[in-house]
């Protein structure tokens, strides 16, 4: 059965027997390339997030500036972004207390750019989901899906490390086009402009 997921603007084949809320998207063959001469449209922002794999995960601390760490994230067909962590780590503890996080999604190619996603977050302690996410993260690390023969090892690691999943539900994003010098004589042509926060599910201008 083919199902359309409007938050990301694409369709995939899904099994009728599987809960679609837990369907993790595969690694995209090619990451979306942000335009360099204009801001990204709302649909392009969602595509940028769907087709990349790493981000700086940030959350508020009581007495200091934001805590930040680089993590792999897994998008789902319903628009959530899933992050694996240990239940005893700061990310999990703060999500239980606060529920607000930001993910600075990173482009891995030059000219380097980024897109910041603001999200509501919650913890999911489902063991099978934790294993699924860890399997998907391993595939993003290596660039190809992990075979099912690795699942018992991943499950054992998940239980040993007391892994949980942070479900991030984006509600807004912020982006600016990448502006770079390719030669020093271009410095007089370099310009920057301001952008703004856009609702995650915003429609493209007509």
UniProtKB/TrEMBL annotation:
It comes from Mycobacterium parmense. Residues 42-170 form the Pyridoxamine 5'-phosphate oxidase N-terminal domain. It comes from the Bacteria. SUPFAM superfamilies: FMN-binding split barrel (SSF50475). Keywords: Oxidoreductase. GO terms for cellular component: cytosol. Pfam families: PNPOx_N. This is Pyridoxamine 5'-phosphate oxidase N-terminal domain-containing protein. The keyword Nuclease does not apply. One of its GO terms (molecular function) is coenzyme F420 binding.
